[in-house]
C-alpha cells in the first residue's frame, strides 16, 4: 500500500513537472557577436527567473545558415517559437508564418518609426531590437593633413567632388568601401545621394517601382553626381573584394582612408581593442552627413534601417510566453543597456545622452550628425524584392561604384529589372 | 503388378527444379534495399521537383497548379540565361584544359623526370582540399593590393596589368576557371598516369622496333590506347563543372554583373534569397538544368563513341 502510494506520488510529481515546465526555443543570428549574444542571454536568464518553470533554449547561427534552416523548418510547419528576422522579410507575413504582435508588446516603449517598419496590413510583426543609420565616418587626421573640413551637416555639390579628388591626388583613398561579402555597402554613396535629391516619398516610390522611374531626370542628375565622385577615384581599386570587416580596418588602420560610409553599427567592430581589429588608440573619429547633390529636395534626409529583430512563430504552442519574453526586453532600461553594450542603435526607446564613460563622446557625435534628420526607412535591399533587388545589388552596389558601367547603362539595367 | 507400380510414379507431382541461373527471390532480396534507398533519396525527390515545377508551393496553403508558367518565366529570365552561358563556358573550357595539362604532366612523370615522386604528390595535393579552402586561398592570391598575382606583375614591372581579377566582368570567370584547372589537373594526371602505366609493353616495344620516334609513339600508340580514360575524365569533369557552386559562392557569389553566376548559385539565390517561400520556380530551373546536363552527357558519350575498335 505504502509502495503504491509512493509510486503514485512520484508519477504525479513527474506529470506535474511536465505540465509546468515550458521551453521556449529561439534561433538567432549573431553567433559571432559576443555582446549581442550576452545581451539576449542575460534577458533570457532574467525572464526565466521571473517565470519559474520556463526555460529559453537559444541556438546561435550565422545569418545565411539561419535563413536556410528557417526556410526548411517553417515550410514543414515546425521551427522555433521565436526567431531572428529583418523587416524586408515580408514573405513571413505574406505566408502567415509569424504572429501579429500588435496587442502583445508594449509599443509605447518602441520608437514609432521602428513600429512602422514592421507594420504589415494592419498588424505589427517584429520586435525591432537593432537599428542603425547610414553615416559618413571621417578620419579627422587624414582630413587635417589635406586641409579639408567637412561640416557635420555635410558638404554640397562640387565641393565634395573636389575634396575627394584632392585626397586621392595626395595618395590616400577617399572612401574605404568594399562589397566583398555584403549586398549593400557599395550603394551607400548612391542611395544617400538619391534620397537627398528626391526626398523620402519619391525615393521610396523609385525603389518600389511605383511612380518615379530610374529614367527620371532627377535620378539621372543624382547618378551623374555620384559618378563624378566615383570618377574622382573615391573607392579603393580592390573595392570588389574588400569585405565589410576589412573596410573598417582599411579606414582606420591600414592603409588608412579619409572616410567610410557605414551603418552606425561601425563601433561594434571598430571599438574593439586594436589587436582585435579595432581602431588604433587615439584615433580621431568624426561623423558627418553624406554628400549633398545640387538641387537636393531634402538635404537632411538619410537612411535609418531596422536590423536584427525577433518575431514569434505563428504556429508556436508557447506564443504568449514567447511574446512575453520579447516584451520583457521592451523597456527603456533594456534599450539603454543595448546601446551601452552594443554601441549600435535600437528600436526600443532609449536615451543616448544617459550613456556615460568612454563612449559618451561617440554618442554625442552621432546625435549631432542626426539632429534634424528626416529618415527613409530601410536601405534599398530592405525595400526591394526579387529581380529589382538582385539587379540593384549587382549594378548599384557593385558595377556602378566600381566604374564598370556608366550612368546610362545603370539606368537601363535598373529600368529593365522591374 | 503393372497397376500397382504405375500410380506411384504418376501421382507424385514432379519436383520443381530450382533455377540456379535465375534465383528470382534472391535477386529481389538483394535488390530491394538498394531500390528502396534509390526510390526514397533519388527517384522521389526528382519526381517531387518535377511536380513542384508546375505548382506554386508556399507554406500553409495547398500547392496550386500553375501549368508551365514557371517555364515561360524561365525562358524570359535573362539572369538564368547568363548563368547558363557561364556554366556551359566553364564546363567546356575547364575539362579540355584540365585533361590536356594533366596529360602533359603525366607524360613527364611517365618519362621519369627528376623529382617525379615529389612532383606527383605536389601536383595531386590541390584536389585534397575543399572548395571552401581553395576559394579563400585564391581570393588571397587574386587580391588586388597584396595578392601573389599582382605582386608578381608589379615586381616584373607590369604594374598596369595588375587588376582586381575577381572584380572585373572580363577576368572573373577566367580567373575561376583557372582555379578549378589548378585544383583538378593533379587528379586527372594520376588517373592518366595509371592508364599509361598499364599499357601493354609489347605494343610499345613493337613501336620501338619499328623505329617509331618519341612523338610518334605518343601520338600513334599511347594516346589512342588511353583515349577511353581521357574521354571518361572529360565527361566527369564536364558533369562536375555543370554543377559547380561552392567555389563561386565562397569567392564571388556570382558577381560582378553576373559574370560568374552559375546555374547552381542562381538556383540557391532563387530558393533561399529571393524573399519568397515558393519552391516552384527554383524547381523549374533544376528540372531544366537536369535535362540540359543529361543531354550534354549523352551528346558527349555519342560524340566520343569509339568507332574503330583498337586491335593490338
Note down, in words, how this protein is organized.
Chain B: This is Carbohydrate ABC transporter membrane protein 1 (CUT1 family). Chain B: InterPro entries: ABC_transporter_permease, MetI-like, MetI-like_sf. Chain B: The chain crosses the membrane at residues 25-46, 88-109, 121-141, 175-197, 218-239, 279-300. Chain B: Residues 1-21 are annotated as: Disordered. Chain B: It is found in: Cell membrane. Chain A: InterPro entries: Bact_solute-bd_prot1, SBP. The complex is a heterodimer of chains A (418) and B (312). Chain A is an alpha/beta fold. Chain A folds into two domains: 24-130 and 307-350, Periplasmic binding protein-like II (D-Maltodextrin-Binding Protein, domain 2), CATH 3.40.190; 133-304 and 362-417, D-Maltodextrin-Binding Protein, domain 2 (3-Layer(aba) Sandwich). Helices cover 45% and strands 14% of the residues of chain A. Chain A is built from 18 helices and twelve strands. Chain A has helices at residues 2-20, 34-50, 63-75, 91-94, 112-117, 140-145, 157-169, 188-198, 200-208, 217-231, 244-252, 266-270, 319-329, 332-342, 360-369, 380-383, 386-399, 407-417; strands at 22-28, 54-60, 82-85, 119-120, 123-124, 131-139, 173-175, 257-263, 285-288, 301-306, 309-312, 374-377. In chain A, strands 6, 7, 8, 9, 10 and 12 form a six-stranded mixed beta sheet that branches. Chain A has a four-stranded mixed beta sheet with strand order 2-1-3-11, with helices on both faces. Chain A starts with a helix and ends with a helix. By secondary structure, chain B is an all-alpha fold. Chain B has two domains: 36-65, no CATH class; 84-278, MetI-like (MetI-like fold), CATH 1.10.3720.10. Helices cover 69% and strands 1% of the residues of chain B. Chain B is built from 13 helices and two strands. A two-stranded antiparallel sheet of chain B has the order 1-2. In chain B, a hairpin with a 7-residue loop joins β1 and β2. Chain B starts with a helix and ends in a 9-residue tail after the last helix. The model of chain B is unreliable at 1-8 (pLDDT under 50). The A-B interface holds A 64, 67-68, 71, 74-75, 77, 88-91, 95-97, 179, 236-241, 385-387, 389-390, 394-395, 398-399, 402, 404-405 and B 58-61, 79, 139, 142-145, 163-164, 166-169, 254-258, 269, 271-277, 279.
Amino acid at each position: 500500500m505504502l509502495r503504491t502510494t509512493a509510486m503514485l506520488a512520484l508519477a504525479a510529481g513527474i506529470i506535474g513537472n511536465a505540465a509546468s515546465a515550458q521551453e521556449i526555443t529561439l534561433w538567432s543570428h549573431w553567433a559571432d557577436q559576443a555582446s549581442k549574444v550576452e545581451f539576449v542571454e542575460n534577458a533570457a536568464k532574467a525572464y526565466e527567473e521571473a517565470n519559474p518553470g520556463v526555460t529559453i533554449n537559444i541556438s546561435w547561427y550565422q545569418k545565411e545558415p539561419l535563413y536556410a534552416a528557417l526556410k526548411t523548418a517553417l515550410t514543414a510547419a515546425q521551427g522555433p517559437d521565436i526567431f531572428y528576422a529583418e523587416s524586408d522579410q515580408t514573405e513571413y507575413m505574406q505566408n502567415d508564418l509569424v504572429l501579429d504582435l500588435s496587442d502583445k508588446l508594449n509599443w509605447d516603449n518602441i520608437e514609432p518609426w521602428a513600429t512602422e517598419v514592421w507594420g504589415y496590413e494592419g498588424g505589427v510583426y517584429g520586435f525591432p531590437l537593432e537599428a542603425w543609420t547610414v553615416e559618413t565616418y571621417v578620419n579627422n587626421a587624414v582630413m587635417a593633413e589635406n586641409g579639408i573640413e567637412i561640416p557635420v551637416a555635410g558638404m554640397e555639390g562640387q565641393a565634395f567632388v573636389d575634396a575627394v579628388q584632392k585626397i586621392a591626388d595626395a595618395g590616400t583613398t577617399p572612401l574605404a568601401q568594399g562589397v566583398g561579402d555584403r549586398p549593400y555597402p557599395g550603394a551607400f554613396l548612391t542611395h544617400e545621394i538619391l534620397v537627398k535629391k528626391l526626398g523620402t516619398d519619391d525615393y521610396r516610390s523609385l525603389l518600389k517601382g511605383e511612380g518615379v522611374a530610374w529614367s527620371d531626370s532627377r535620378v539621372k542628375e543624382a547618378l551623374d553626381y555620384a559618378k563624378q565622385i566615383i570618377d574622382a577615384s573615391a573607392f579603393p581599386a580592390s573595392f570588389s573584394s574588400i569585405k565589410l570587416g576589412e573596410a573598417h580596418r582599411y579606414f582606420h588602420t591600414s592603409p588608412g582612408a579619409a572616410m567610410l560610409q557605414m551603418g552606425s553599427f561601425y563601433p561594434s567592430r571598430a571599438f574593439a581593442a586594436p589587436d582585435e581589429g579595432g581602431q588604433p588608440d587615439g584615433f580621431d573619429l568624426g561623423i558627418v552627413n553624406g554628400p549633398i547633390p545640387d538641387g537636393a529636395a531634402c538635404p537632411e534626409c538619410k537612411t535609418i534601417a531596422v536590423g536584427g529583430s525577433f518575431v514569434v512563430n505563428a504556429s508556436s504552442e508557447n506564443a504568449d510566453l514567447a511574446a512575453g519574453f520579447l516584451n520583457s526586453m521592451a523597456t527603456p532600461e533594456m534599450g539603454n543597456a543595448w546601446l551601452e553594450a552594443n554601441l549600435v542603435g535600437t528600436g526600443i526607446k532609449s536615451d543616448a545622452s544617459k550613456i556615460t564613460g568612454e563612449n559618451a563622446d561617440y554618442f554625442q557625435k552621432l546625435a549631432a550628425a542626426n539632429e534634424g534628420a528626416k529618415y527613409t526607412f530601410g536601405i534599398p535591399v530592405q525595400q526591394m524584392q526579387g529581380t529589382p533587388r538582385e539587379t540593384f545589388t549587382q549594378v548599384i552596389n557593385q558595377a556602378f561604384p566600381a566604374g564598370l558601367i556608366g550612368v546610362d547603362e545603370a539606368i537601363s539595367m535598373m529600368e529593365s529589372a522591374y | 503388378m503393372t497397376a500397382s507400380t504405375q500410380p506411384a510414379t504418376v501421382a507424385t507431382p514432379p519436383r520443381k527444379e530450382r533455377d540456379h541461373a535465375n534465383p528470382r527471390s534472391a535477386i529481389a532480396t538483394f535488390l530491394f534495399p538498394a531500390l528502396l534507398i534509390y526510390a526514397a533519396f533519388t527517384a522521389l525527390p526528382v519526381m517531387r521537383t518535377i511536380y513542384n515545377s508546375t505548382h506554386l508551393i508556399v507554406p500553409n496553403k495547398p500547392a496550386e497548379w500553375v501549368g508551365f508558367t514557371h517555364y515561360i518565366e524561365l525562358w524570359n529570365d535573362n539572369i538564368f540565361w547568363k548563368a547558363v552561358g557561364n556554366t556551359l563556358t566553364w564546363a567546356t573550357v575547364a575539362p579540355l584544359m584540365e585533361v590536356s595539362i594533366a596529360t602533359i604532366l603525366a607524360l613527364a612523370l611517365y618519362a621519369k623526370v627528376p623529382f617525379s615522386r615529389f612532383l606527383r604528390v605536389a601536383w595531386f595535393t590541390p584536389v585534397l582540399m575543399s572548395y571552401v579552402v581553395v576559394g579563400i586561398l585564391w581570393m588571397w592570391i587574386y587580391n588586388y593590393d597584396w595578392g601573389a598575382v599582382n605582386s608578381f606583375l608589379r615586381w616584373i614591372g607590369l604594374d598596369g596589368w595588375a587588376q582586381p581579377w575577381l572584380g572585373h566582368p572580363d577576368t572573373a570567370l577566367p580567373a575561376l576557371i583557372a582555379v578549378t584547372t589548378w585544383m583538378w589537373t593533379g587528379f586527372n594526371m594520376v588517373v592518366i598516369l595509371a592508364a599509361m602505366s598499364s599499357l601493354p609493353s609489347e605494343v610499345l616495344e613493337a613501336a620501338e622496333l619499328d623505329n617509331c620516334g618519341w612523338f610518334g609513339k605518343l601520338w600513334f600508340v599511347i594516346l589512342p590506347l588511353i583515349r577511353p580514360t581521357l574521354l571518361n575524365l572529360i565527361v566527369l569533369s564536364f558533369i562536375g563543372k555543370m554543377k559547380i557552386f561552392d567555389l563561386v559562392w565562397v569567392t564571388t557569389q556570382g558577381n560582378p554583373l553576373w559574370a560568374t553566376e552559375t546555374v547552381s548559385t542562381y538556383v540557391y539565390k532563387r530558393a533561399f534569397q529571393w524573399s519568397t517561400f515558393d519552391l516552384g520556380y527554383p524547381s523549374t530551373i533544376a528540372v531544366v538544368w537536369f535535362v540540359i546536363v543529361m543531354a550534354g552527357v549523352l551528346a558527349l558519350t555519342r560524340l566520343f563513341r569509339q568507332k574503330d575498335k583498337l586491335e593490338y
